[in-house]
From TrEMBL:
Family classification: Belongs to the histone deacetylase family.
Record CDD domains: HDAC_classII_2
Highest taxon of the lineage: Bacteria
Name of the protein this chain belongs to: Histone deacetylase family protein
GO terms of molecular function: histone deacetylase activity
Annotated segments matching region Disordered: 1-23
Origin organism lineage: Bacteria, Pseudomonadati, Pseudomonadota, Gammaproteobacteria, Alteromonadales
Pfam family for this entry, one: Hist_deacetyl
Comp. bias regions, Basic and acidic residues: 13-23
Domain Histone deacetylase: 20-317
Basic residues bias spans: 1-12
Amino acid sequence: MTIKIFRGKHGTKHDLGNEHPESPDRLFAIDDQLLSSGLEMICEHGDATPIPEAYLSLAHDPYYIKSVFHRAAQVSFSDDEKTVYAGKETPTAWLDEDTGLMKHSLTAALESAGAGCNAVDYVMAGTERQAFCATRPPGHHATYDSAMGFCVFNNIVLAARYALQNYNLQRVAIVDFDVHHGNGTEQIVAGDQRIMLCSSFQHPFYPHSGAPVLASNILAVPLEAGITGDVFREKVQHWFNALSNFQPQLILISAGFDAHAEDPMAHLRLVEDDYFWISQALRRVADSCCEGRIVSMLEGGYDLSALGRSVVAHLKGLSRP
């Protein structure tokens, strides 16, 4: 097994307070489970580098990009808005009601987006390569021109467009199995026939989108609250033939683990074995279409124990064809 894990040095410094569910503890929980499972010792590791600002326009409105940098600069000087960080009040610029910037947030967001590009470079440099980006903040709710749902930049779309541009690819697939619809990803890639998006999510649920789909390059699987892994597996089964027909040259995964039965943020009933199953199935598709090349990026997952265990199952699935 050789999976490279990319981490950002500022991922655990982006902290919007003890009550915010998208917390640094998520990354610590993943690290704990990787250690206890033994996977930590057999994975490669790489430091994520911040994405160059020019690349952000592959997914985002230049005006929005400038506004994020401007708001981030303000938090070092403004005392108008505060949040509790490490027991002290620190300035915070809120981009929406859930998504904020404090002192380290912009660097963390740039590293989170940069990790996807680093991972693309890694997997494209050889065959039978898989990478996982254990970074935060997540990205799939960020739209072309706005932050949303804990997400500042759309990391997965940036990775996909980076791969298309820098490696002269014609077809890239994105698979998103977060419990929340990746509305930003769908909005940005809708109609881009170079990208196939396969997306599963609880519906109706936040952000109250995803059905009907916006374009023909999107395969959506809305899921009713309370469904178990058996139903999930049946509902997404058609993805694999569709992906094989599409013949992607790279598969990217928005890996959200908040559909787990123990997660407090939603109402689906998946367990670790379901994440192993879909990860292994995607690895088989990658082996048949794109020499095993997969880049996975962390999205949701808010019960810390379930998140860590699910990431371990995900990585085991990616490593076994």
